[in-house]
Amino acid sequence: MDQGDRDICWAICFAGLTQALHNMTRPVNQHVEISIEELINQIKPGASESFGLANLKIAIKHIAKNGILKQPAREKKSQEANAVGTRYHETFQLHQDVDADFLQARLDRYPVALILQMDAEFLALGQDGIYHMRKKAPITKDTSFHCMLLIGYGVTREGKTFFIGQNSHGEEWGCKGYAIVFINNECDIFCRQD
């Protein structure tokens, strides 16, 4: 998926996580696709806000209480739209300052969403798709956050752990939208609540 210029990486991750958690225990003919647009329409930042941890917490509460739609509702009125379609409820949790071992333990059971501070290297990731995540910097008004799904991990010949990330910047980013991410410092994630 390509989010384009829209600040919707968080919604793509929540929808991807919910979809994966539902589908991973069911046969293919019972798989569902989750609506990203419906979630975006429910969680709207203020006019001067963009993606931030506060919006993640709002989305976590919304998905636990109201669920997320299987498919977009076709009704025009929002009250009708909220009642149409199958909703999937999931309880997610934000984990801050976790290490690679914590990530691996979660990825052994389900995908997780990585929260990172974007930098020029990340945005311009080449076709080799290898990204070394930087240490978290103090948050300022200019800090730009991004979410991407982590769907697996591995170990290099040299014994270094890496994570497989699925991004929302389209197939032109990284290796057809995927990356090998090395995380050597603490990071923030959200995933299914244990």
Automatic annotation (TrEMBL):
Gene3D superfamilies for this protein: Cysteine proteinases
Entry-linked Pfam families: Peptidase_C1 (PF00112)
The Peptidase C1A papain C-terminal domain, residue ranges: 2-189
Protein name: Thiol protease SEN102-like
